[in-house]
Write a structure and sequence with these properties.
heterodimer, A: about 290 residues, alpha+beta, six-stranded antiparallel β-barrel, 4 helices, globular, B: about 65% helix
Chain lengths: ~290, ~180
C-alpha cells in the first residue's frame, strides 16, 4: 500500500475540523457554565496574555506619567487646596469623635450593650483597572494586582465614591472584579435614613441595581442613599452603594420594583482600592457556651 | 454581467506578487491584534471597535489557508475569552465558525479585490457575532441590544486597512516581470 506523497495530504477537511472544535468548545462552555471548572486553564491563559495586556496598557500609563509630570508644576496650589480640605475634614472628624463618646454615654445610660466593635482592620491595596471588556454580557473588569500582591478572593473593591464590586477570580499578576451590576451579584445594604436592611442585586444592565422582594408599603423614597450594612462580612459597614432612583408599584405584583443607580462608577476613574478585612473570629456569647 | 465584478484576465496578471508570509510574521501580527483588542478605551469607542484578532485570522485564512487553521483560531478565541472574562469557549467557537466559513469561501474571496471582499467579510462577522450572542443568551446573559452589531459594520470597514497593512511587508521588492 502506498500512501499519498506528503505534499498532497491536507489533513481532515474543514467540516470535520469544525465539528471537532465545536464539540470541544461546547464541552468548555457547558463545563464553565454548569460546573465552574477549568480554573487552571484560565489561570494559565491569563498568565500568558498578561504581558500583552500590559503592553496594551502602556499608552495610558505613559499618558498618566506625562500628566503627573505636568501636574508637578501645580503642586503648590494643590497642596494648599488639600490643606484646606484636611482642615475641613479634621473638623468633621472631631465632631465624629464627640458624637462617638456621646453615643457611648447614651448607650450606658440606656443600659444597652456596648456596640460590638468588630475588631476589623482594613488594609487597602491601591490598584488600577487594567482592562474593561467590550462585551456587554460581562460585568467584570480586570485589575493589575494579583495573588502576588496578596489579593484574595472575595475582597471588596471600592473607589472614592463607593462600592464597585468584589474580587471573584485571581491570577498571579491580575485579578477579576465582578461589578455590582452583574446579574449574579448581591450586596447586603441598609437605607441610611432609617437603617432599613435589605439586599441589593444587579440587573445585568449598566447603571441599574434592584432591591428585590420588598413589600409595597415599605418606607423607601427616591433619593435615599443605600450603604453597606456590613452583614455577611464581605463589605465593611457604611460604604455608599447606590441611590434610589424610582419606585414602581404594579397592581398585579406583591412587591414593588425599586430601581437604584450605583454611586461608584467604573468608567470615571482608573484607580480603585481593594479592601482586605482581617477579621477576628466572632466571639461566642457566654450563654451559648454553657 | 457578473464578469465586471471580478478581476478580468489582464488585471489578474497585473496583481501584485507577494512573498509567502513566515510563521513568525503571522504570529507577530496576531500578537499585535491581541494588543489592539486589549487597549483600554472608553465604552462608547469600544462599541465601534472592530475585532482585530478575527480580522487578522481571516486575512491569513484567505491568503494562506494551509497556514492558518481552526486550531489557531480556537486558541486565540480562548485568549479573548479569558481576557474578556466571558464564558470559556464563547469566542473560541465563534472564531472557529468564522474560519470555517472563510475556508469554504477563500478561493472565491481571492477573486475579488479588497474593497469587494469587505461586504463578504461583513457577512462572516455577522454570523460570528450572532453565534456569540446565542451562546451568551443560552448561558443566561441578557441580550445586549442591536448596537452589538455596530462592530460587524466597523469590522467589515476595517477589513480594507487591515488587509492592506498586513500585505505591505510581503510585497516583493524586485519586479517579477523584470526578466
Amino acid at each position: 500500500m502506498k500512501t499519498a506523497p506528503p505534499f498532497f495530504r491536507h489533513g481532515p477537511g474543514p467540516f470535520a475540523k469544525l465539528i471537532v472544535f465545536t464539540c470541544l468548545s461546547c464541552l468548555l462552555i457547558v463545563e464553565d457554565l454548569r460546573f465552574k471548572r477549568f480554573n487552571e486553564v484560565r489561570q494559565i491563559i491569563g498568565t500568558i496574555i498578561f504581558p500583552l495586556q500590559r503592553i496594551a496598557y502602556a499608552p495610558t500609563f505613559i499618558y498618566d506619567e506625562v500628566k503627573n509630570f505636568i501636574v508637578h508644576f501645580n503642586l503648590l496650589e494643590e497642596n494648599a487646596k488639600l490643606r484646606q480640605q484636611f482642615l475641613e475634614n479634621q473638623e468633621y472628624l472631631l465632631r465624629f469623635h464627640a458624637l462617638e463618646t456621646e453615643n457611648a454615654k447614651l448607650r450606658e445610660l440606656l443600659g444597652a450593650i456596648e456596640r460590638i466593635e468588630k475588631s476589623t482592620e482594613t488594609k487597602t491595596i491601591l490598584s488600577e483597572i487594567l482592562y474593561t471588556p467590550r462585551d456587554p454580557f460581562s460585568h467584570k473588569i480586570t485589575l493589575n494586582k494579583g495573588i502576588y500582591h496578596k489579593v484574595q478572593l472575595g475582597q471588596a473593591v471600592i473607589d472614592d465614591k463607593g462600592v464597585i464590586g468584589q474580587i471573584t477570580r485571581t491570577y498571579p499578576f491580575s485579578s477579576e472584579v465582578t461589578l455590582l451590576t452583574d446579574k449574579n451579584h448581591s450586596v447586603p445594604v441598609q437605607v441610611l435614613r432609617n437603617s432599613l436592611r435589605s439586599v441589593i442585586s444587579g440587573t445585568g444592565k449598566n447603571n441599574e441595581l434592584e432591591l428585590r422582594y420588598l413589600s409595597i408599603n415599605i418606607d423607601i423614597q427616591p433619593g435615599d442613599l443605600l450603604v453597606t450594612s456590613g452583614i455577611g462580612g464581605v463589605y465593611p459597614p457604611g460604604i455608599p452603594v447606590a441611590v434610589v432612583e424610582k419606585i414602581e408599584h404594579s397592581p398585579s405584583d406583591d412587591f414593588s420594583r425599586i430601581v437604584s443607580n450605583p454611586v461608584a462608577g467604573v468608567d470615571r476613574n482608573r484607580q480603585v482600592l481593594i479592601l482586605s478585612m482581617i477579621q477576628s473570629p466572632v466571639e461566642i456569647p457566654a450563654e451559648a457556651k454553657n | 454581467m457578473n464578469r465586471d465584478k471580478r478581476l478580468n484576465a489582464d488585471d489578474y496578471l497585473k496583481q501584485d506578487v507577494y512573498d509567502t508570509a513566515s510563521n513568525g510574521y503571522i504570529a507577530l501580527t496576531l500578537a499585535l491584534a491581541l494588543i489592539l483588542n486589549f487597549l483600554p478605551l472608553p465604552n462608547y469607542i469600544l462599541l465601534f471597535r472592530p475585532d482585530f484578532v478575527v480580522l487578522t485570522i481571516l486575512y491569513w485564512c484567505v491568503q494562506y489557508p494551509h497556514k492558518m487553521g481552526m486550531s489557531v483560531a480556537f486558541i486565540m478565541g480562548l485568549m479573548m475569552d479569558v481576557a474578556n472574562v466571558n464564558i470559556l469557549g464563547q469566542h473560541a467557537l465563534a472564531y472557529c465558525i468564522a474560519v470555517y466559513l472563510t475556508l469554504i469561501l477563500c478561493r472565491r474571496l481571492r477573486l475579488f479585490n479588497t474593497w469587494r471582499q469587505a461586504p463578504q467579510i461583513g457577512f462572516i462577522l455577522f454570523v460570528m457575532q450572532t453565534t456569540m450572542i446565542l451562546i451568551a443568551v443560552l448561558g443566561g446573559f441578557r441580550f445586549p441590544g442591536w448596537e452589538y452589531y455596530f462592530a460587524t459594520v466597523s469590522g467589515s470597514l476595517a477589513w480594507i486597512p487591515v488587509s492592506l497593512l498586513l500585505s505591505v511587508p510581503l510585497k516583493q521588492k524586485t519586479d517579477p516581470n523584470a526578466l
